[in-house]
Each structure stands twice: as C-alpha cells, then as structure tokens.
Amino acid sequence: MMTTTAGRLSWNLVSPPAAAIVLVFAWGTHPGTLGNIVVGVALVAAVLAAVHHAEVVAHRVGEPFGSLLLAVAVTVIEVGLIVTLMVTGKGDTSALARDTVFAAVMITVNGIAGLAIVVGALRHHLAAFNPEGTGSALATVVTLAGLTLVVPSFTTSADGPVFTGEQLAFAAVASLALYGMFVVTQTVRHRDFFLPVADSSRADGPVDLDQDGHADPPTNREAVLSLALLALALVSVVGLAKVESYAIEDAVASLGLPHAVVGVVIALLVLLPESIAAVRAAVRDRVQTSFNLAYGSAMASIGLTIPAIAVASIWLDGPLALGLDPLQIVLLVLSVIVSVLTVVPGRAKPLAGGVHLVLFAAFLFLAAAP
User: Fold this and answer.
1) Which superkingdom, per the lineage (predicted)?
2) pTM > 0.85: yes or no
C-alpha cells in the first residue's frame, strides 16, 4: 500500500541507510552468531524497505515500467554478487553462475508465479491476466533458458557442459538481443498486453484499476527519493547476502549438502523483494503485475547475467560450466509445460498455483538431495 503512517514511513526511510551501515562494518568479515543475527535483521529490513520504495516508484511511473525497474535493478546487482562469489567463494565455483541462474528461474517461474496465483485465486475466485503479454514473456524466458542452460549440455566442441569462447559470445549476444526485444515490446510497442486486466465473468464485476487502494501518485521529489533509497536497499540486500554467504557455506558444508544449495539460498535472498511485491500485487487483484515481476526477473536474470559472466570469464580462472545436469533439465521441462498450460487460458484456479508450488518444492528438495 502506498498510504503509510508517519512511523512506518520513517522506518522505510531509515532502514536502507541503516542496512548500508551494517554492510560497511560487516563487509569482508566472518561474523559470529550475534553478528549474523544483526546482519540477518538488517537484511530483512532492507528487503521490506526495497519493496516499499519499489512500489512508490512503480506507482509514479506506472506499469509495466515499475515491475521492469525492480527486476532489472535486482538482477544487475545479482550479477555483481555472482562474480564476487566466483572470485572469493570456497571450493569449486565453476558452476555457481549456472546454479544461481537456474535457481532464479525456478524461484520466479514456479515459486513467485505459483504463490501469486494461489493468493490471487483464493482471494478473487480466479487469477486473471493477459495471456498475450504473459505468453510472450514466458516464450522469451524459455528460449533464454534453453539457449544458455540446456544447449551447453549437448555441445561437443568443448569437454563438459561448457561453451567454447565463440559459443559463449554468441549466447551472450543472443541473450541481450532477446531481452532488448522484449523490453521494447513490453514498454513501447505492446504495453497494453502487460497491464493488469479485469475479468468481467466474475460475480463482483470488473476490477477498477483507478481505485486499487493506492493513494494519489507520489510527487517527483518523493519518487526520486524512493528511487535512491531503492538502489541503496538493493545494494544492501545483495551485500548483506554476500556477508551471510560465509555462514551459509559453512552450514551447507556441515550438513553435507551439495555446494549448489549455496546458490539456491543466495537466489532466494536476492529475490525476496520481487516475491513480496508479487504477492502484494496478487492480493490487490493485479496478477498480471505479479507475472511481470516473475517472468521479468527470470528474463533479466538470464539475459543480463550470462552476458556479464561471459565478459567476466575473460579474467576469471577456470572453466564456466553453464549446462544443466539431466535432473535439472527434467525439472525445467516440467516447469515449461506447466507454465504454458497455466498461461494459455488467461485465468488460473488455485490448483494451477499449487502445481507450480509443488514443482518449486521438488526443486528445493532435489537441490538438497539430488
């Protein structure tokens, strides 16, 4: 909600700089138990503040620009986190980019989308969205995921699930081109396909998009302030997640879990702002906005991360394993099939969201117990 009490507004203003201060003192250290608790509290506060300020900016610029802004902002900083972990992480980090990007895809396509459908459908009988816009977003996500995460497992020019330099360059350019084409489609050519829709078949009538519970749009000054605080909050989220990654790596190792679990946990932390924003949009009967966030984040995670990692690989030592293993490919294929069946009708029942959440749970379980 855009309307807040003075105390809550003050809290949202204070949280990003406070989290940044914690990050400054915690960066480059290995905090103890108390330190990790402080970092965790600051991380949660920064996530909640990021969601608030993203909604302020989104309310000012309108959809789908607001969803695009949050997705791109988080993903750009996520790239920095992946590169940092590949340089400073423990053990073999050759597959860290693949594991993190794949985790981001599964979290967004199944976790965020599924939860949004369940919340929206339970609250409003059916979750309504535009199948044309959502379908084009899903098609772009599937193409990006297949080209950058599946194809490397079947190429023969290099040993292992890796691209040659030429193949990686082609995948990077193709990813940027696809992402650029989608952004133009979403924001210029066919923007109407990505706006929240009304479902006239419902008993309570169509959704009034002008009376959605928001206050009047914020002023330019308020929007600029929120944009700055959003950037600060997102930097703090990713930086604090990096600090917590040491404790996460130690916990994963002590539990005997695969190292890929580290990428999953980091992706979950980084995608918290989109997750909360998507659920809140679904509560307001704006499931299209939830899909914009989910698929937009998946798209940006691949379309921006892979090219950035391709450039960074020039200076990084060791191979860059991008190809998924057979189990991950099966999960991805199942997710694509279910997503297509969900998107085509333009409306979804709680069952559809439940199916996505079961696939998401299977991904989490099999990541820990492959």
Assistant:
1) Bacteria
2) no
